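Methods — Computational structure assignment.
A single polypeptide chain was analysed. Its primary sequence is given first, followed by the predicted tertiary structure written as C-alpha cells.
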Amino acid sequence: MLTRNLGHTGLQVSAEGLGCMGMSEFYGQGDDAESVATIHRALEIGIFFLDTADAYGPHKNEELVGRAIKGRRDEVTLATKFGIVRDPQDPTKRGVSGKPYYVRKSCEASLRRLGVETIDLYYQHRVDPNTPIEDTVGAMAELVHQGKVRHLGLSEASPDTLRRAMKVHPITALQTEYSLWTRDPETNGVLSTCRELGIGFVAYSPLGRGFLTGQFQRFEDFASDDYRRNSPRFQGENFQKNLDLVRKVEELAKEKGCKPSQLALAWVLAQGDDIVPI
C-alpha cells in the first residue's frame, strides 16, 4: 500500500483509509466479529489509517476499534472525532459542542474506549456555531501539548473557519464528503482553501455511501434500520435519477476492466496526492 502525507505537520497515512462508522451504526445491522476481521485484513494489506468517532454507536465503534487494535497499536494511525453530542439512552437526540471543557472530557473518554494513550489525529466532528473556533482549537491544542493527541483536524468546516483555526494551531486535515457523486468541495472553496493552507483532505464516503458500487437496485434493498432510507438522495425520483448515473459508472468501469467501486475510488485518488479516501 502506498502512503501519503496529510498536511504539513508530518502525518503519514496509508493512501487509502478505512472508515469504521458503518460497522456499528447507520447502514443496518452490524457484525462485530466480521468487523474486527475486516480491520485485521486491512492492516494485513497495508491500510493502516483507521477512522472512527465517539458519535458512532454512540461510543460502540470506538470500543470496537479498540478491541481490534489491541496489541497492534504500533501498526495503526488512529483518527477519531468529538463534537456531535448524543445520548446513548436516546441516540435520536443530537447536539453539537465545541466548548473547551467538552473537548477535554471527550478526549479522555475516547482514549479510554480505544485503549490507547495517544490519538494520532483528533477531529472536531462538526463546528459548534455557539463556540468560537479559536476557543475549540485552543483546547484541542492543549491536548497536543499534553501528549494526548498528535495532530488536529476539522470536519465539515468552511474556508473561513479553516483560516481562523490555522491561526491558533496547525490543522493537519479536513474531512468532508467527496466522490464522483458529491463534488461540493470543488465549488464551495473548501478544497482550494485546504491546498492554499497546506491542509490535507480526507474524503469520506468515496463510494457514494455504497451507491456507486452498483449493488443497490431498489429502495427496498436498504435494511429497515438503514439511515439511507431517510436520505433524500435515495428517495422517490431521486433514487432512479442517481441509479442512472451509476449505470454510467458501471459502463466506464466495464471499459476499464474493473469494478464500479474500484473506478470510484481511483477517481478520488487521482484528484491529488493531498487527498486520502476513507
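Note: The first helix runs from residue 32 to 44.
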